[in-house]
Design a protein that fits this description.
Blueprint lengths: L7 E5 L11 H9 L2 E4 L2 H10 L6 E3 L5 H13 L4 E4 L12 H9 L3 E5 L4 H9 L6 E5 L5 H11 L5 E7 L3 H11 L5 E6 L7 E6 L3 H6 L8 E6 L13 H12 L4 H12 L3 H17 L1
Parallel strand pairs: 1-4, 1-5, 2-3, 2-4, 6-7
Antiparallel strand pairs: 7-10, 8-9, 8-10
Helix pairs in contact: 3-4, 6-7, 9-10, 9-11, 10-11
The structure holds S-adenosylmethionine (SAM).
């Protein structure tokens, strides 16, 4: 058997909102493969048309992937190259494809990633929270009691936590986050990344739900929510929520980062150094809103 007698399964990342983020290699591979397995073929057609990709499509989603995956592996073993795409971002990250990748690898098929956007990673990099260690927690449970129990199991984790959420549930999710996590825990709400209304807003567990509730536009679109780890806060402790609130008021009122952190330290008794670090982040976020 020569090497080319078995096909390659390409995992191709696609944009999460901004078409200009499609990589030239992604386009080249999607044009060249025998078949594109897509989460939702109707959803992907406009993207593929935009880039002049006329490759045949086959649906591969959570309801058919157990049946479709073995069929696709047969085609790979017969020598065809296949690409997998999802509706947006990196396949398999809260998206279909795991059974296909597992089966393909078990069958000795080469699985080759074609990297591109992933909402979790781009939100993390822009969040100002520690990127050294993080947990991608994905979508929270939809029902309140299960969601709160799940959040409780994550609350003491020392690393940055990353959640996905839709506009429909963002209010309820942030409400539960505030009920379970210490009120002063840093939270970053990243919304509509790479799109026109991109927002990366730094707040706290105690204030996040209120911020989103205050303006209907803030609840629109797609969200990544990031939470600072339990042991990685300045001074090794969760910063006082009141101190962060005062800091926000002073910064929005026009104080410099230096003055705002000095004043907030005087008013609340929190440590000036920790407030300064937090103020730098808050000031950046306020500029972005
Ligand atoms: N595979 C995708 C990835 O690599 O990011 C994620 C797919 S998951 C089904 C969709 C979720 O990702 C959305 O509900 C939202 O939480 C997040 N997401 C996707 N695009 C986003 C964007 N442009 N801004 C913020 N969050 C986004």
């Amino acid at each position: 058997m020569n090497e080319r007698s078995v096909g390659v399964l390409y995992l191709v990342a696609t944009p999460i909102g901004n078409l200009a983020d499609m990589s030239p290699r992604a386009v080249e591979i999607l044009r060249r493969v025998a078949l594109i397995a897509a989460e939702d073929t109707r959803h992907s057609l406009p993207l593929l048309r935009h880039f002049g990709i006329a490759t045949p499509l086959r649906a591969l989603h959570e309801h058919n992937e157990d049946v479709q995956s073995p069929r696709l592996v047969e085609r790979l073993l017969a020598g065809e190259d296949i690409a997998l795409i999802s509706d947006a971002g990196t396949p398999l990250v809260s998206d279909p494809g795991f059974p296909l990748v597992r089966l393909a690898r078990a069958a000795g098929v080469r699985v080759s990633p074609v990297p591109g956007p992933c909402a979790a990673v781009v939100a993390l990099s822009a969040s100002g929270l520690s990127c050294d260690r993080f947990t991608f927690a994905g979508f929270p449970p939809r029902r309140g009691p299960a969601r709160r129990e799940w959040l409780e199991s994550l609350c003491e984790r020392p690393e940055t936590l990353i959640f996905y959420e839709s506009g429909h549930r963002i209010g309820d999710f942030l409400h539960d986050l505030g009920a379970v996590f210490p009120l002063s825990r840093p939270v970053v709400v990243a919304r509509e990344l790479t799109k026109l209304h991109e927002t990366v807003y730094a707040t706290t567990a105690g204030e996040a739900a209120g911020w989103v509730a205050a303006d209907a536009d803030r609840r629109k679109g797609e969200f990544v929510v990031l939470v600072g780890g339990a042991e990685l806060q300045p001074g090794g402790e969760d910063m006082d929520a009141e101190a962060v609130r005062v800091l926000g008021i002073l910064l929005r009122g026009g104080c410099s980062v230096k003055d705002a952190s000095a004043l907030a330290a005087e008013i609340t008794g929190s440590r000036r150094r920790a407030l300064y670090t937090r103020a730098l982040r808050l000031a950046e976020e306020i500029d972005h809103v």
